[in-house]
């Protein structure tokens, strides 16, 4: 039964509509995910619930349901499928495909199994991930949607032996149309509340500029780099005390602009094919259509190079998954914490309100800029 004091404390065995609660898989500030079962059709699924009492700006489920209904109608591949949706007096819910580890948790688990310091994949696996996830984003963009929160935690592999090589796109709560039904691109809005992850969002998104297809692709590249080398140049970006969230956004944006202007810094430790990928991205404008075909071709060259060198085309998790206990195979499915601007408690009392623009930064040299954003070590690499 439901616990009104804790709307997410749903006991195993409770039935909601036709879905029997099996166990809780994870939870965040505004929602939780459960493994559920349809005993009539003998299938498992994932139920995502969201409190009905939260403020409208934090409600994501309605958007997710609308997007997933359209993706299902257009038969988009490699996106989690919507099975059902509805509400109770306490929460809204939707039921979707049950998937396995997301790429972030999978990289962490493989690193621990293989005693690796960095959570990263082999080059062949990284190239495969790049092609598969790019194809999925291309299909999403063809449906005139932007994801706006592309990151490793929002891609997951299948949970059955038959689909371990399939990578699914998750979490459509921040998705938005970028064009009208006739294909005419929307004009950019003057200012947009930040949506996404500070680590993987584009500099434009961090500076609260309207996003377009290019921003999804930049987040995709940052995701790919992270899964290839185990980190991003700004992964350990230091923040000064009394720094507001908006000021943090600006510091991340400054670091990313600096790194994207210097590919040798952003792509340190990456295969040469990533340089070609990046060359197709640096000139993208708001209305630009990314050259998905050329980017995909560059990654395929990397796979062909590895095969020619005698490398076995084996995904790293295909063998590693045998070492991971089955009891853990469906945990950490979704990033449940809200990806919108965090609650005001993250802003020190003496700081300006979150809606205030960041203070203007005085003109500085590139070296001073690097020091300001806490990436002095990056400057030493490229000096």
Explain what you see:
The chain contains 12 helices and 10 strands. 33% of the residues lie in helices and 13% in strands. Strands 1-2-3-4-6-5 form a 6-stranded antiparallel beta sheet, covered by helices on one side. A hairpin with a 3-residue loop joins strand 5 (82-87) and strand 6. It is α+β, with helices and mostly antiparallel strands and 383 residues long. The protein has 2 domains: 21-97, 2-Layer Sandwich (Phosphorylase Kinase, domain 1); 101-322, Transferase(Phosphotransferase), domain 1, CATH 1.10.510. Keywords: ATP-binding, Kinase, Nucleotide-binding, Transferase. GO terms for molecular function: ATP binding; protein kinase activity. Residues 344-370 are annotated as: Disordered.
Helix-strand layout with pairing:
Elements: E1 15-16, E2 19-27, E3 31-38, E4 43-51, H1 61-73, E5 82-87, E6 91-96, H2 103-113, H3 123-142, E7 145-146, E8 155-157, E9 167-169, E10 176-177, H4 203-206, H5 213-229, H6 245-260, H7 263-266, H8 273-279, H9 292-308, H10 316-320, H11 366-372, H12 376-382
Antiparallel strand pairs: 1-2, 2-3, 3-4, 4-6, 5-6, 7-10, 8-9
The mean pLDDT is 84
> First CA to last CA: what distance?
62 Å
* Secondary structure category: alpha+beta
Main beta sheet: 6 strands, antiparallel
The count of DSSP E runs of length 2 or more, i.e. the number of strands, is: 10
Sheet-strand content, in percent, reads 5-15%
**Shape category:** globular
Q: What is the H/E string?
A: EEEEHEEHHEEEEHHHHHHHHH
Rg from C-alpha positions?
A: 21 Å
Helix content estimate: 25-40%
Q: How many helix segments?
A: 12
CATH superfamily caption of the largest domain: Transferase(Phosphotransferase) domain 1
CATH architecture of the largest domain: Orthogonal Bundle
CATH class of the largest domain: Mainly Alpha
CATH topology of the largest domain: Transferase(Phosphotransferase), domain 1
Low-confidence stretches: 329-383
